[in-house]
Design brief:
about 120 residues
Length: about 120
């Protein structure tokens, strides 16, 4: 099995996270499917200590991956961003949104977030 890619823990320790089994339970999927979503770039895991965790903000209250997150990750990856940089960007306040890009994605403002992500490529 290929190794699961992960970002370093660049988040504030107060950011809520879920272990991979907790993420799988929340999504109603087997852990192997969550691992595949991480490999495919639909989610990003963070290495916190010796454990892989996923920020709770990446999931909806209804048990799904936040709409627009996989596409945003792809745009930033294609622009040369590392996983660490993507996570940092998603959780950094942007006065023009307002709030953080992940908050904007969670409130259905994905078009604005994707526009900003695309602009970073230039």
């Amino acid at each position: 099995m290929s190794q699961i890619p992960a970002a370093e823990d660049v988040l504030d320790p107060a950011v809520e996270v879920l272990t991979l089994p907790e993420t799988a339970q929340r999504l109603g999927l087997p852990v192997t499917r969550v691992q595949q979503a991480l490999r495919d770039g639909h989610l990003i895991a963070i290495r916190r200590g010796s454990e892989l965790v996923v920020p709770t903000a990446f999931l909806t209250d209804d048990g799904a991956i936040v709409k627009g997150l996989p596409g945003t990750i792809t745009v930033l990856t294609d622009s040369g961003f590392t996983r660490d940089e993507i996570v940092r960007w998603l959780f950094t306040a942007d006065d023009s949104l307002p709030g953080t890009p992940i908050e904007a994605l969670r409130t259905n403002r994905g078009t604005e977030v994707k526009r900003r992500a695309q602009a970073l490529a230039f």
